[in-house]
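Sequence and structure are kept together here, with a separate record for every protein. A complete record is shown below as an example:
=====
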Amino acid sequence: QVQLVESGGGLVQPGGSLSLSCAASGFTFSSYAMNWYRQTPGKARELVATINNIGDIKSYAGFVKGRFTISRDNAKNTVYLQMKSLKPEDTAKYSCNAQLTSTNYWGQGTQVTVSS
């Protein structure tokens, strides 16, 4: 079955950096675009970044552009999110997402807390 497992979250000071990973299994990873989303309690989930199946087309939400970088390694079935210049408002649970035909799959998420 499809599995998405995130890792790399934690507590970081404002201005710091963090790198998230999402290991995928159960589907042909190299055939699908991948997304990173984030959500805070009481707010709607928001799209952070998207990368196409071969990794040469990327898009970012305006609030992270220039600070976050999405990448993927199809040999390792893994998608990454490198985050720098983190702000307190980046605090959220970050989840990776794969939309396979008509079904959306989500990982369990990893918490990122930006605080001094």
Observations:
- The chain has a mean pLDDT of 96.
- The chain has no helices and eleven strands.
- The first strand starts at residue 3 and ends at 7.
